[in-house]
């Protein structure tokens, strides 16, 4: 029995076990399998492990998307999470190459995926508050927002949650060092139904250069006293 003799439901089930590249390669073999590849039912969940993957044509983006994850765990992510004022010329040049990659992709999600239910971003050092604000506005059904080690996220994102996150039930801002305790308390006060987690965030030294320098000096003086 040839694979193309299977009905649509069986083919969709088989495709669901394949990664994005394998799905794309299989879709190139015949028109029927291309139609299966283009079925929205196949693209309710998308996982990416590098910003480079966002530029490929091996997936479909549309209203069927419910769950999206972009988690970059490469050693290079550390470079993007260094404060700009501490980066050397090589590091700045490296970060510039993909500075807007994730942001542009998420703006595309805003326009094409209004039914998104969950978003997970980890190590996305160039994501800004404005990008998250647009997502909250354009994806009103978003129930879970998990941000980890996204260094440009600040209390403005937390404020956006209180204004536009009516459906949100889970909010995580772990290791987002520019989030403050005051911002977290506002979320707890205004959105008591949201399960909030902010591991290490408000306890980390923020990126503001004068403030960071002052905190480092205080820490140094304490060590001297000890």
From TrEMBL:
SMART domains assigned to the protein according to its UniProt record, in alphabetical order: LRR_CC
Keyword Transport among UniProt keywords: no
Presence of the UniProt keyword Membrane in the record: no
- F-box domain: from which residue to which, for each copy? 9-46
Keywords from the named record: Ubl conjugation pathway
Fetch the InterPro entries from UniProt: F-box-like_dom_sf, F-box_dom, F-box_LRR-repeat, Leu-rich_rpt_Cys-con_subtyp, LRR_dom_sf
Question: Per its UniProt record, what Pfam families does this chain match?
Answer: F-box-like
* Parts of the chain that traverse the membrane: none
Judging by the UniProt lineage, the source's domain of life is Eukaryota
* Record-level GO cellular component terms: cytoplasm
Q: Name the SUPFAM superfamilies on file.
A: F-box domain, RNI-like
Q: Which PANTHER family match?
A: MITOCHONDRIAL ATP SYNTHASE COUPLING FACTOR B
Q: What is this protein called?
A: FXL22 protein
User: What is the organism of origin for this protein?
Assistant: Irena cyanogastra
């Amino acid at each position: 029995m040839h694979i193309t003799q299977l009905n649509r439901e069986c083919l969709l089930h088989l495709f669901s076990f394949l990664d994005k590249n394998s799905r794309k390669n299989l879709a190139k073999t015949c028109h029927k399998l291309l139609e299966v590849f283009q079925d929205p039912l196949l693209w309710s969940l998308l996982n990416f492990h590098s910003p480079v993957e966002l530029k490929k044509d091996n997936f479909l983006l549309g209203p069927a998307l419910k769950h999206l994850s972009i988690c970059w765990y490469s050693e290079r992510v550390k470079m993007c999470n260094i404060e700009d004022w501490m980066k050397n010329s090589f590091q700045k040049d490296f970060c510039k190459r993909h500075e807007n990659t994730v942001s542009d992709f998420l703006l595309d999600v805003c326009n094409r995926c209004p039914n998104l239910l969950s978003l997970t971003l980890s190590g996305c050092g160039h994501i800004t508050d404005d990008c998250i604000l647009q997502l909250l506005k354009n994806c009103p059904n978003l129930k879970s927002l998990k941000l980890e080690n996204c260094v440009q996220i600040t209390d403005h994102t937390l404020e956006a949650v209180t204004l536009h996150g009516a459906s949100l039930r889970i909010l995580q801002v772990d290791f987002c060092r520019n989030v403050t305790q005051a911002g977290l308390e506002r979320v707890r006060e205004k959105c008591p139904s949201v399960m909030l987690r902010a591991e290490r965030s408000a306890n980390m030294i923020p990126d503001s250069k004068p403030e960071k320098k002052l905190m480092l000096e205080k820490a140094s003086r304490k060590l001297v006293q000890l």
